[in-house]
Design a protein that fits this description.
- With 425 residues, this protein is α/β, with parallel strands linked by helices.
- The protein folds into two domains: 233 residues, 3-Layer(aba) Sandwich (Rossmann fold), CATH 3.40.50; 176 residues, no CATH class.
- 25% of the residues lie in helices and 17% in strands.
- The chain has twelve helices and 17 strands.
- The strands form five sheets. A seven-stranded mixed beta sheet has the order 3-2-1-4-5-7-6, with helices on both faces. Strands 15-14-16-17 form a four-stranded antiparallel beta sheet, with no helix packed on it.
- β2, α2 and β3 form a beta-alpha-beta unit.
- The two termini are 32 Å apart.
- It comes from Streptomyces caeruleatus.
- It holds the Pfam family DNA_methylase.
- InterPro entries: C5-Methyltransferase, C5_MeTfrase, SAM-dependent_MTases_sf.
Length: 425
């Protein structure tokens, strides 16, 4: 089996499905477990720090681990950095068969910090029976020194090991998400996968195959590189709960915008416009194609007076928030606090303000879970469970499946085809 510690909502698991394999996920979060169940993934709901390793001895070919990153992430208080010496101590002790976790945990500033040492408990026990064959681990960049400690231990046990920082955008993920990676193998040279994308497209040469340009948000979401997408308003609270973006609801908001001259109904027969579509689940989609023969009400579209506005994604409400045009990959998506709400915002495309009655830009619009999932390379119909806050928390903490597939494919003896991942649908 393939053992997946801190399995989350299934980033690694979905990549394994694409590659024709399956894992057993250990996960504590109730809603992540429900998402995994809805996605058909085998899951044991448990505390990884308490679950015994014995059931997996003699049966484990691969071990995956993505410990919770909140203690280390720049999105949080980063108390894990203060606890780092204690985590290194725990890893060294566990590698020698000494369990000092309880004592070290009492000294930690953040109780989640020590979870980054848990994979060593499993690795030490599995190593007694010559397992696993390979290891793949992922965390935020600040954990790289810890991965190097793991690497030194695994090399003593006969593994080839590579550690380093990879950018998910270099592997076709529409997001410049940088992560510390550890890859190890007993049977082959461990090395990072060859990047498939670059910030600027690179043609094929004598030195190797070319690389495509980074995937933009517009491309991933199916908005088109030349279209000016109009995100519709999604009624309901943001990731952290609370009031909806516009208390009067989406219909009234669009009507007010239309009255101000920012929007007008338009149905060009030869073009694709973007509007809500009701799916079987009753949820709202922004990305369905629409033609003049549709029976529904016409979708809002930009008028010629609004062509001076361009859409971007703002990562949160802080002054130093990352703002990326839809023609670029997103910045690192992270959720969990109201200050970290991602919003689509309209910015002037040039120095000339649009000519309308008020001169105001369209209102910011919160990103939906569906869109955030797509930007993480989950399928558009991935069955996220829980309320909005719970869904966004799962999405922000997940490993992008497309990155995970590139990391795992060589160790499964599988060639990853370019069309194995379809983003917007």
């Amino acid at each position: 089996m393939i053992l997946d510690l801190f399995a989350g909502p299934g980033g690694w698991s979905h990549s394994l499905t694409i590659l024709g394999a399956r894992d057993v996920g250990l996960e504590w979060d109730e809603w992540a477990c429900k998402t995994r169940a809805a996605a058909g993934q085998l899951t044991i709901r448990t505390d990884v720090a308490l679950y015994p390793v014995r059931p997996f001895l003699g049966r484990t070919v691969g071990l995956i681990a993505s410990p919770p990153c909140q203690a280390w992430s720049m999105a949080g208080k980063r108390l894990g950095l203060l606890d780092q010496p204690l985590v290194h101590h725990a890893v060294a002790d566990l590698a020698a068969g000494r369990d000092t976790r309880e004592r070290l945990l009492a000294a930690c500033q953040d109780e989640r910090s020590l979870l980054a040492a848990e994979p060593m408990r499993y690795l030490h026990a599995l190593n007694t029976v010559g397992e696993p064959e390979w290891v793949a681990m992922e965390e935020v960049p600040d954990v790289l020194p810890l991965w190097r400690q793991y690497a030194a231990i695994l090399r003593r046990w006969g593994f080839s090991v590579w550690t380093g920082i990879l950018n998910a955008a270099d592997y076709g993920v529409p997001q410049t998400r940088r992560r510390a990676i550890l890859l190890a193998s007993r049977v082959r040279i461990a090395e990072p996968p060859a990047p498939t994308h670059a910030q600027t497209a690179e043609p094929e040469s004598l030195f190797g195959p070319g690389r495509a340009r980074w995937v933009s948000m517009a491309e991933a979401l199916g908005w088109g590189a030349t279209d000016r997408p109009v995100p519709t308003v999604c009624a309901g609270g943001g990731p952290g709960g609370g009031p909806e973006p516009f208390p009067s609801g989406s219909r009234q908001t669009l009507a007010n915008a239309r009255d101000r001259g920012l929007w007008r109904p338009q149905l060009p027969a030869a073009e694709t416009v973007f509007e809500p579509q009701t799916r079987g689940t009753g949820r709202t989609s922004r990305h369905g194609p629409r033609t003049a023969t549709s029976a529904d009400a016409p979708a809002p579209a930009f008028t010629s007076k609004a062509t001076h506005w361009k859409w971007s994604l703002r990562s949160n409400n802080q002054a130093n928030a990352t703002v990326r045009s839809i023609e670029e990959p997103a910045g690192t998506l992270f959720f969990g606090h109201r200050v970290n709400e991602c919003r689509w915002i309209a910015e002037p495309a040039d120095d000339t303000p649009p000519e309308n009655e008020t001169g105001a830009a369209p209102e910011p619009i919160r990103i939906t879970a569906r869109e955030a999932g797509i930007l993480q390379t989950f399928p558009a119909d991935y069955p996220w469970q829980g309320n909005k806050g719970q869904q966004f928390s799962q999405i922000g903490n997940a490993v992008p499946p497309r990155l995970a597939a590139h990391l795992l494919a060589p160790y499964l003896g599988v060639t990853l085809a370019p069309d194995d991942f379809t983003l917007a649908a």
